[in-house]
Structure formats: structure tokens, C-alpha cells
Amino acid sequence: MLEMLVVLLCGSIIASAALAVRLDSVLAAAVSGGLATLFAAVCYVLLGAPDVAMTEASIGSGLSTLILLYAIRRTTEAKE
Predict the structure, then answer these.
(1) Distance of CA 26 to the CA centre of its chain
(2) By residue range, what is the domain housing residue 66?
(3) Which residues, including other chains, have CB under 8 Å from residue 17's CB and lie 6 or more apart?
(4) Which pTM was predicted?
(5) pLDDT for position 27
(6) What distance in Å separates the CA atoms of residue 51 and residue 57, rounded to the nearest whole number?
(7) How far apart are CA 80 and CA 67, in angstroms?
(8) Mind listing the pLDDT tens digit for each residue in 19-76?
(9) Is a pLDDT exceeding 90 seen at residue 14?
(10) Which residue of 7, 54, 55, 65 could cross-link 34, Cys pair, CB 3.0 to 4.6 Å?
(11) Three-state helix/strand/coil letters over the chain
């Protein structure tokens, strides 16, 4: 059962990363990339590495996505 969940999460990571590459909107691609790292954090929890999962969720999914979204907002304001 655990192996099936891990395989499903790994497939979700690949799907959201591919979606981030294929999307036309930069904002949607940034959110999809953050979703991929969130799936990775859940996968780490299931594999028994909660310390790595907390780091991935806070830095990878949280902080990096927020910084990227802030940069996108600032550059679109500069264009207008």
C-alpha cells in the first residue's frame, strides 16, 4: 500500500513538473512548480524522513515559490 502511494506521488511530481514546463502563463507555471515540491515533501514523509520533508515544504514549496511569485509581480508592475 505504501509503495503504491509513493509511486502515485512520484507520478504527480513528474506530471506537475511537466505541466510547469508546458504552461504559457508564468504565474501558473510557478504554482505548478511549487506543487511539485509539495508532492515531494509528502513523499518524504511517507518514506520516513520527516526532517527532510519539513525542510522541503518550508524552503522548497513555501519560500522559493513566494519569492518567485513576488518577482513575477514586481516585473509585471514594471512593464505597466
Answers:
(1) 14
(2) 2-79
(3) 32, 33, 36
(4) 0.85
(5) 92
(6) 10
(7) 20
(8) 999 999 999 999 999 999 999 999 999 999 999 999 999 998 889 999 999 999 999 8
(9) yes
(10) 65
(11) CHHHHHHHHHHHHHHHHHHHHHCCCHHHHHHHHHHHHHHHHHHHHHCCCHHHHHHHHHHHHHHHHHHHHHHHHHHHHHHC
| Number of C-beta neighbours around residue 4 at 10 A | 8
Q: Cα separations (Å) of 51 from 36, 43, 68?
A: 18, 12, 24
Cell numbers at 79, concatenated: 512593464
Instruction: Domain count for the chain, please give it.
Output: 1
Q: Per the structure block, which three cell numbers stand in for 46? A: 511517507
